[in-house]
Design a protein that fits this description.
It is built from 6 helices and 9 strands; from the N terminus they run αβββααββααβββαβ. The protein has about 210 residues and is α+β, with helices and mostly antiparallel strands. It has 2 domains: about 80 residues, no CATH class; about 120 residues, Gcn5-related N-acetyltransferase (GNAT) (Aminopeptidase, 3-Layer(aba) Sandwich). The model has no long low-confidence stretch (mean pLDDT about 95).
Length: about 210
């Protein structure tokens, strides 16, 4: 059975975790410690939550006020628009049974999973803007690995994968510019799926930017 949306939201939080997460005055708040938008955004936890209060709390943490809009949050979306907020980094959440990515053997020396990340993996992430603060996010996840691909006899790309509640979520996919449009990301996802299957995961998911 495909995981429902609430389970998938929890998987995202657990596989790309903020330094701290708590609920206060109708909001779920996150201390991202520089790890990016997803680990810093507030999400609504009660219909009467006061936007101004969430803004004050985020500013007190030296975070720019940022809200994550999830399925069913149309009233919050409209209220934020009325306050002058705009849309940034919209994503689609994709999920499928793990066996749909483990049906093709991975060619030798094409993709590997390893934890902790190798130096070359950190270099590739850094080229894509994924620096030490986001690497710290990865370290906070529990069941996890990093994936490296080789293509044309050279490093091709990297990804981070972590599992929670039977779902493997793949984050931080970065393919080197000169290796793109050659199927490198496909092998990253398939390697993550094979690893996740050995860990007992039944589904694999990722967030895909829509713009």
């Amino acid at each position: 059975m495909t995981p429902d949306i609430e389970k998938l939201y929890d998987v995202i939080d657990q596989t790309w975790p903020p330094a701290k997460k708590w609920t206060e005055a109708g909001w779920t708040l996150r201390d991202g410690q520089g790890g990016g938008k997803r680990v810093s955004a507030a999400t609504i936890a009660a219909p009467d939550a006061d936007i101004a209060q969430a803004e004050t709390t985020m500013r007190a943490m030296n975070q720019q006020p940022l809200f994550m809009i999830r399925e069913g949050d149309h009233l919050l979306d409209a209220a934020l628009e009325a306050r002058g907020y705009g849309i940034i980094d919209p994503v689609n959440l994709l999920v499928l049974p793990i066996e749909q990515l483990t049906d093709v053997p991975i060619p030798r020396v094409t993709a590997f999973d390893v934890w902790e990340p190798l130096a070359i993996m950190l270099e590739i992430w850094a080229k894509g803007g994924i620096g030490p603060d986001r690497i710290n996010v990865m370290h906070r996840a529990k069941t996890k690995t990093a994936v490296l691909t080789r293509w044309n006899e050279m490093p091709g790309g990297v990804a981070f994968a972590a599992i929670h509640n039977g779902v493997c979520m793949v984050h931080a996919v970065e393919v080197l510019q000169h290796q793109r449009q050659q199927g490198v990301a496909k092998w990253l996802m398939r390697r993550a799926a094979f690893w996740a299957q050995t860990q007992g995961a039944g589904h694999i998911a990722c967030l895909l930017y829509t713009s």
